[in-house]
């Protein structure tokens, strides 16, 4: 950490928090750390780790460098972790001895990392998950147990979150291959369906939307007949994802068909996390906006109608809520509602700063807004500089 004292860092964090009218408890929840830690950091009794500092900065909606002079920030930390992930993947099928953690410790750490993924805490993932993925692979090679395979799938999915979001698409594809390899050993058809859901990222990255739609439809056909909430949710999530990629492919009828199926499954479950994926009525409603935007400018009225009388609950995963407001901003921008679009982008930033900053649509639309509204220079330019659009 740079040469600033712990007291100076704590004072900057406290001042920034107060300027945003956040309590210490608010900041603790948003940054995914304990209230006791926030209190200790603000009074200078503790020096935050780089990952904790990035999480606090993200929750406050500022660059880490605003809190600590010279701090490298999340992006550099993520990219620094990618070679370690590559090294783990190079030996994924080679037994390298027993894990360094107990089974209970592995399960706890994998669950915690999944929570970071859903909360868009990419700096924390970059710091911890390469070693965690290596340990889950060691556990699988040692035990050959289905539960160990499930841990590998979850850890690889969490690692993929940073690889994909930060543009390392080849690495992301390799992580998804490891997910599929491990899922096949878990004796759990739903887990293979989940891997197929995540695999769609490779088609998005390659803009191979028609092929991605066919892959998802094959996954729907291969999924087991649902007989409980998890089964309904997994099949519904596949339809939800298929609707979006059908929209990107310009296939209106397929998008509508899959969205209708997703709604029917969504109505049969409560909103929750199933197999690592948020699904339920609210998630499907958010994807109505995503589908409308994916289909293009002629469909944006549908997105605006959804958002007119409904907003996502704060209980939903931060990454998904942030994505909703980013997509809504695009619909608003296409509809000539520039001020509303900027407000939506600011909401997305407040919910999940790290996710918003790395989202290509958010960058593009912030740059467009700045060109359209040069008179509102200060706040808009500040946002555009933060997101890297200028």
Question: How would you describe the overall organization of this protein?
Answer:
The chain is 73% helix and 2% strand. By secondary structure, it is mostly helical. The chain has four domains: 1-71, 434 Repressor (Amino-terminal Domain) (Orthogonal Bundle), CATH 1.10.260.40; 73-186, no CATH class; 188-306; 316-390, no CATH class. Strands 1-2 form a two-stranded antiparallel ribbon. Strand 1 and strand 2 (277-279) form a beta hairpin. Helix 9 (169-183) packs antiparallel against helix 10 and helix 12 (229-248) packs parallel to helix 14. The protein is globular. It starts with 5 loop residues before the first helix and ends with a helix.
Fold blueprint:
Blueprint: H1 6-19, H2 24-31, H3 35-42, H4 50-60, H5 73-90, H6 103-118, H7 122-143, H8 146-165, H9 169-183, H10 189-206, H11 209-222, H12 229-248, H13 252-266, E1 272-274, E2 277-279, H14 281-295, H15 300-308, H16 318-334, H17 338-351, H18 353-358, H19 360-372, H20 377-387
Antiparallel strand pairs: 1-2
Helix pairs in contact: 2-3, 2-4, 4-7, 5-7, 5-9, 6-7, 6-8, 7-8, 8-9, 8-10, 9-10, 10-11, 10-12, 11-12, 12-13, 12-14, 13-14, 14-15, 14-16, 15-16, 16-17, 16-19, 17-19, 19-20
């Amino acid at each position: 950490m740079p040469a600033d004292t712990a007291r100076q860092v704590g004072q900057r964090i406290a001042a920034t928090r107060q300027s945003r009218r956040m309590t210490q408890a608010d900041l603790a929840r948003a940054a995914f750390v304990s209230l006791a830690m926030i209190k200790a950091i603000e009074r200078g009794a503790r020096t935050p780790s780089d990952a904790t500092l990035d999480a606090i900065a993200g929750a406050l909606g500022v660059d880490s460098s605003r809190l600590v002079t010279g701090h490298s920030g999340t992006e550099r930390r993520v990219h620094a972790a990618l070679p370690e992930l590559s090294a783990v993947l190079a030996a994924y099928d080679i037994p390298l001895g027993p894990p360094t953690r107990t089974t209970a410790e592995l399960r706890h750490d994998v669950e915690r990392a999944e929570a970071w993924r859903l909360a868009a805490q990419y700096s924390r993932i970059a710091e911890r998950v390469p070693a965690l993925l290596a340990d889950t692979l060691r556990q699988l090679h040692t035990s050959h147990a289905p539960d160990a395979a499930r841990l590998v799938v979850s850890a690889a999915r969490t690692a993929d979150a940073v690889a994909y979001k930060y543009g390392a698409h080849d690495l992301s594809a390799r992580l998804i291959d490891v997910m599929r390899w491990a899922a096949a050993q878990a004796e759990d058809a739903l887990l293979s369906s989940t891997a197929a859901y995540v695999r769609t990222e490779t088609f998005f990255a390659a803009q191979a939307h028609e092929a991605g739609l066919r892959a998802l439809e094959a996954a729907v056909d291969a999924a087991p007949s649902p007989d409980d909430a998890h089964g309904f949710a997994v099949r519904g999530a596949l339809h939800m994802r298929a609707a979006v990629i059908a929209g990107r492919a310009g296939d209106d009828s397929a998008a509508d068909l899959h969205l209708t199926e997703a709604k029917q499954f969504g109505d049969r479950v409560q909103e929750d996390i199933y197999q690592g994926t948020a699904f339920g009525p609210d998630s499907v409603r958010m994807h109505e906006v995503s589908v409308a935007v994916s289909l293009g400018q002629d469909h944006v009225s549908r997105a605006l109608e959804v958002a007119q009388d409904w907003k996502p609950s704060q209980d939903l995963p931060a990454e998904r809520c942030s994505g909703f407001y980013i997509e809504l901003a695009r619909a608003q921008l296409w509809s000539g509602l520039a001020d509303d679009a900027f407000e939506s982008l600011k909401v997305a930033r407040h919910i999940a700063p790290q996710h918003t900053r790395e989202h290509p649509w958010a960058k593009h639309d912030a740059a467009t807004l700045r060109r359209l509204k040069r008179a509102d220079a200060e706040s808009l330019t500040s946002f555009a500089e933060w997101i890297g659009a200028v």
